[in-house]
Recover the amino acids of this structure.
């Protein structure tokens, strides 16, 4: 009986050891090798380009109704003729329409530094030896020095540089994009006798 009980106890111990061994997890095996990359999918079809937008309206030409000469040398004759001397510039832009409807602004400088620029007409400021005036004919712009009878025998006509601006009666493109005629320029404080103010207002090079 004791022997049987001893065998039975030993059997239970063996079973317990076997159960414990089976219950323990085994060690993780090594990861398998990485499989080959999959094939890239096919690119989708590009979408259709959108239709081009309509062209915007053309902007208005800036100062299209203003014509300006370059600075031109005014080389007067060395002597007076009946107390006057003139220089004429040929300009095909001066048409009958220009004569009839445009306003002319003329400016004169005694040297090419253009430090002092005088609006025509004016009187020579130092000795008052002459008065300068301007006029137009078809295809021509003329400035004339009218000598002072007190100095015409001692002072020759004085050379210089002249530039003129022809302005149509239509609106101009002025400061702030507002349209102005010659009258409008004056109303907006532009001194027409001041060459630099006029050119700045019109947005033109000196």
């Amino acid at each position: 009986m004791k022997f049987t009980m001893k065998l039975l106890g030993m059997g239970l111990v063996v079973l317990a050891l076997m159960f414990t061994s089976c219950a323990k997890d085994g060690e993780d095996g090594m990861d398998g090798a990485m499989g080959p990359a999959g094939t890239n999918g096919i690119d989708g079809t590009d979408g259709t380009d959108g239709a081009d937008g309509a062209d915007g309206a053309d902007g208005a030409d800036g100062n299209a109704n203003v014509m300006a000469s370059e600075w031109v040398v005014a080389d007067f004759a060395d002597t007076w003729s009946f107390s006057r001397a003139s220089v004429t510039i040929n300009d095909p832009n001066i048409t009958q329409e220009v004569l009839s409807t445009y306003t002319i602004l003329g400016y004169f400088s005694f040297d090419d530094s253009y430090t002092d620029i005088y609006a025509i007409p004016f009187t020579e400021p130092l000795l008052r030896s002459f008065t300068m005036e301007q006029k137009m004919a078809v295809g021509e712009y003329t400035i004339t020095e009218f000598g002072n009878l007190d100095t015409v025998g001692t002072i020759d006509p004085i050379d210089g540089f002249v530039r003129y601006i022809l302005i149509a009666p239509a609106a101009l493109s002025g400061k702030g994009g507002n349209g102005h005629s010659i009258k409008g320029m004056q109303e907006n404080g532009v001194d027409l006798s001041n060459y630099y103010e006029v050119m700045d207002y019109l947005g033109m090079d000196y």
